[in-house]
Amino acid sequence: MRREYLFVLVTLCLCILGIVAVYSVDPLRDEGFGPKSFFGRQILWNVVGWALFLLFRFFDFQWLFRRSWLWYLLSVFSLGAVLVFGESDETGAKRWLFSRSVQPSEFAKLALLFFLSSYLSTNRDELDFWSLLVKSAFFAAVPALLVFLQPDLGTALVLGVLWFGALFLGGWHRRKLGLLLGLVAGLSPLSWFIMKDYQRKRVLAFLDPWQDPLGSGYNVVQSQIAIGSGGVLGQGWLSGKQTQLRFLPARYTDFIFAAFCEQFGFVGGMVLLTLFILFFWIVLETAQRVGNLEERFFASLFGILFLFQVGINVGMNLGIAPVTGIPLPFVSYGGSSLLVHLAGAGMIARLIWRTEQEERERWI
Amino acid sequence: MWNERMEERIRQRVATALWIGIALFVVLSARLWYLSVLRGEWFRERSERNRVRVVFLEALRGNIYDRRGVCLAEDVPRFRLVFLVGSSEEELVMKRVREVLGRDIAFSLRERAPGELVLLEDLPLEDVVKIEENSERLPGVLVEVYPARKYRDGEIAASLLGYVGKVSSEELKALGKMGYRNEDRIGKSGVESFYESLLRGEEGYRRVEVDALGRVVQVLDFRSPRFRYSLQLALDWELQKACYEALGRRNGVVLVGDPATGEILAFVSKPSFDPNLFSRGLSLKEWLDLLEQKSNPLLARPTQALYPPGSLFKILIALAALEEQVVTSRESFFCPGYLEYGDRKYLCWRRGGHGRVTFEEAIAESCNVVFYTLGLRLGPERIARYARMFGFGQDAHLDLPGVKTGFFPTPEWKREALKEAWYPGDTVNLSIGQGYLLVTPLEMYLFLCAVANRGKVYDPHVLWRVLDENGRVVREVKPSLRRTIALRSQTWDTVIRGMEKVVTQGTGFNCRGLPVKLAAKTGTAQNPHGKEHSWFGGFFPSDRPKFVFLVLVEHGGDGSGEAALVARKVVEWILQNRGV
Question: How far is B166 from chain A (nearest CA, A)?
């Protein structure tokens, strides 16, 4: 089977399972399909997202690399606009633009992805240099800081990881990266002092959620109960008590994995995880095959971005990672995240198609 | 520097990233396995606990009726406001509750069970309506019905019926295995306490499925609380009320009963208290006030207070003297107003003396000098023997908690306890019911029953019948003979004649002229704390007694006065309303 078909199939499966999961936690599902219901909107976003997927699959996207400065500046600008004009959500964080329809921090991920790929590859003679490390650190820090101020610790962390991933994939020496990691690890206790109260509580809740199961540990505890009570085969679609009786918080977004596992059990969870790892595998496999450095950076960074988000999200659902508001790619409810990831997947699909073609030509 | 080596390194890095991804996949899968497969059972149980809430519904208590079916104590529904915690909107909901009720709720929250707070008890009906109207906006707030004990005319039979309260931590420790819960009611005194095991019903429960905000999704299972037995007392409520009113503003005791069965028809203790206060829940201050009142309203005087019997005791001396033949009914005495014995002079209550009196007249006039003489003739041992025969100082076998026994002094007791010999003066004092001798009103009442019944003493009892849920009689208390005091019938006749003369020509003049043959005796108990206590007890009709009565008025002066007046009212009421 051609790798591209497998890739499209995996992505499609993830999106369908996402719709299935969103439907199961949708409080408005009885009112039928419509733009007001969560699953209705999720389907709508999928349609738009798959249009983007096809767009990037069939049209060359080299121009995106050439204008990466533009995307970068646009995203910094929109993140600044969020801080000034943005609208708050339930938690009081300012994350939205245009009456809560666009979440610029999601697009910032993609913008930084392009910018770093293009920036590093154009400066490929300086790879492994301290000077380029510092410069790229500065470029990554600007949007990360703006996101951090929203505050959205999770996405800021994703941007940071993106930068570190770029250094890693850019071939910086192990010792330099180790030094960098050591520095971050050494300084991270200091972050305790700049954290907000709720963030500190989250850290403590992560360390021992059962300490305060009705308070700060509530999310973590309820999520584990949901996953655990799913058992091997799950309680069946639309019938987990944790989910249906709304004990599980953030069921559409952050904790959708738990809601899914309560209904489909260990088996369902493994299906999701397998799809994720397959997706990641194919993306990195593709990165190995493309000859073009900027495209290789792009593909492997996209893979790392994907892996990190899945790891943190599923990890927090399983109670082995701290609670940060990172959505589960393709599955969580939310337009911005879905569009960004489907667009990225479309580009990957194009790369797969192209590498396959190149290989065939070589054989000929 | 871009070169082949760099390109190779980048290629390796991508491969490394792939392995990192696979490692992560393994870790996440393992954790998922652990949670859902290995510990699935445990989490399922947690999930169950999450959603199912069991609300226990307090057991109902049986009603208490009087012998004619008047309901004396019953459970009435009250409302309480309960808040189920667990929602994240606690503060908001509390704010809304205050808004809805339009007043501040004292934040004296009480946790009844884990996750359940009682906000308010005894909620007025209008507040119940307000809460129910706004229930949509008040997730987790429930109005719950609970039973509260209501007593008819609270004070009138408080010391007999007792009261109920929340089970205390000590009681809980002792009774824990019997299935009492923290919030349960338990009988604290009187009938409520003695017959707790009969009165206490079965608790109910409601198992409900709740959502994350504590809103009830559906009721899974429900069992309504119930009671098992109701009690019907021998008590005659109207008579009880008449007795209570007859005492007026005075403190004291009125006991009325049927000597042939042992049934207690009236059991009055004054001052009294309102047991309804306890159902509502007494504040600490109110409780301390009750405890600290000098007159001690919580004391059930008929069974728990000790008094000297005074001249009422002369009847025992008279019976003993006749039976032991230290006197005959024909003997006559001379009372100069005092008795000289040894080097001391013992006074009669009438300073001028009674002059020449017959034995029966001595009873009627309650002449001290005659009874001093008889007491000395009998000696303390023989008096003690008769007192024991009649049950003084022994368990009364009454079905009420905390019944005390009086104290009967003997020479041995005095030797051991006070390290002193028994002097003739002690005998003299004893023979008119003074000195060390102490009795409860109940003991005196039982003594009168023995006389009225000519030696047959039945166990006194307040319970008459036990009824089941449907009002069917499942048990009836039958008269139970405790003792038979075998004296010659001549002895009984003579003493009862003397007691009749108390009314017709002696100290009981305040009861003269009633249309029934009444046998009675006055008593005046000296009291170091103030005015004498006034006794009056007897039975009627004296030839075939149907009612025995005993009146004690604290600080009522001599027995011919206050106590006899109260007794007259009681007897008149019985004659008018119950007949003989």
Answer: 30
